[in-house]
Amino acid sequence: MTITEIAQKAGVSIGTVDRVIHNRGRVAPETAERINAVIAEYGYQPNPIARHLKLNRNFVIGVLLPNLESESGYWRQCYEGICEAEKELSPFSVYVALEEFDRSVKGSCLAAGKKLLSQNVDMIVMAPVMDEDCHRLLAEPNMVPYAFVDSPLPQTSPQAIVAQNPFRGGLIAGRIMQMLAPQTNKYMVFMTYTAAYNSRERSRGFNAYFLENGDAISDEFVYNGGSVQKDFDRALDEYFAQKPNIGGVFVVNDAVHYVGEYLKSRGLKDRIALIGYDIIPENRQALVAGKIDCLLAQRPQQQGYSVIQTLYRKQILQQQAENTEIPVDVFFKEHAMALD
Fold first, then answer.
1. Parallel, antiparallel, or unpaired for β 329-331 and 294-297?
2. How far apart are alpha carbons 163 and 241 in whole angstroms?
3. E-state strands within 74-159
4. Which of 136, 150, 248, 258: disulfide with 273, CB 3.0–4.6 Å?
């Protein structure tokens, strides 16, 4: 029931009903009693969108992401979803302000987050991929309500999380690896950006699968070199010279196409199964070409869209809003070819 309908049934003005509902202004006791009786009989729920519009102000959601063109454009896809949500919410005076950071540079995320806070944003959506920086930012005295996209982060209290369960993703990778490479029990987990919680959890999930389902040995290889193919090749040459019996490689992020190119160029791909993350163009091409056996994907555009919508409902409309766990999509060569 609306305020107008309550006023009609009680035989009073809309303004009188409004004063009773919000307990402001003077209303005769018998009139207030009549209005409350109508509300008790028919019920009344305020319209949160109308209440929001009455505030007549802009709401700015700060967005804190790694450089959009880094990691083969993964973060660009996430931001496209954010912009889609902003477009839908712009009639309600909701806008986003973007700050990018270089996750290879310590302190970059913290500096970009402080810059957002200096712009007096109302809320922040952030990808918590630099643990130390993120915890320091959340401890800032002027920190605003925040939500996470792409990854959870322990020991924090976000208003919302829109992300995949990274441990479960690692478990799934382990199960697929066992099917792709049943002839071996020696695997390598390839990691970059070891400070990222989701990368560590994917590795932990992968290892947990084999602890429960066999006696496989998983060796963790951390790569901190450059982002060109020759840098990967040099590091992997050194690794495989020491451990030539690896039968499967799980790359916990989108860098899997570099590893696929390496294995193919060294004639190793026929005996080493390769699983990695994300349907970015380079990975998809490598999957179709047989350089990668399987990709796990996490819908970055959907994540970006959902986190803005969730934060809007929860913080501005004051509605209940649940966290969104993104499913683990599994792509083989045939799936990637069908995307054309």
1. antiparallel
2. 37
3. 94-101, 123-126, 146-150
4. 248
pLDDT tens readout for residues 13-35:
878 887 887 677 788 888 988 88
- pLDDT of residue 49 exceeding 60: no
146-150 sheet: strands from edge to edge:
94-101, 59-66, 123-126, 146-150, 160-164, 324-326
DSSP string, 144-189: --EEEEE---SS---SEEEEE-HHHHHHHHHHHHHHH-TT--EEEE
**Kind plus residue range of the DSSP H or E element containing 326:** strand 324-326
Locate tokens 């992020």: which residue? 253
Q: And the tokens for 278?
A: 């994300």
Place of tokens 């090749």: 233
Q: Would you say 150 and 160 are in contact if contact means Cβ atoms under 8 Å apart?
A: no
Asked whether 246 and 272 are in contact (CB, 8 A), the reply is yes
Which among 254, 276, 272, 252 has a CA at the least distance from the CA of 264?
272
SS3 277: strand
Can you tell me whether residue 67 is helix, strand or coil? Answer: coil
pLDDT at 233: 93
Q: Are 74 and 304 in contact (CB under 8 A)?
A: no
With b meaning 16 or more CB within 10 Å and e meaning fewer, what string describes 236-252? beebbeeeeebbbbbbb
Work out the angle at residue 213's Cα, subtended by the Cα atoms of residues 212 and 218, and round it to the nearest 5 degrees: 85
Residue 247: closest CA among 166, 179, 191:
179
How many whole angstroms separate alpha carbon 233 and alpha carbon 221?
14
Closest CA to 17 of 6, 28, 26: 6
Q: Which two tokens stand for residue 227?
A: 């982002």
Tokens standing for residue 163: 């992300």
Q: In the predicted model, what is the mean pLDDT of residues 73-81?
A: 95
Using an 8 Å Cβ cutoff, are 216 and 210 in contact?
Answer: yes
DSSP state of 88: H
Crossing angle for the helix pair 197-213 and 166-180, to the nearest 10 degrees: 50
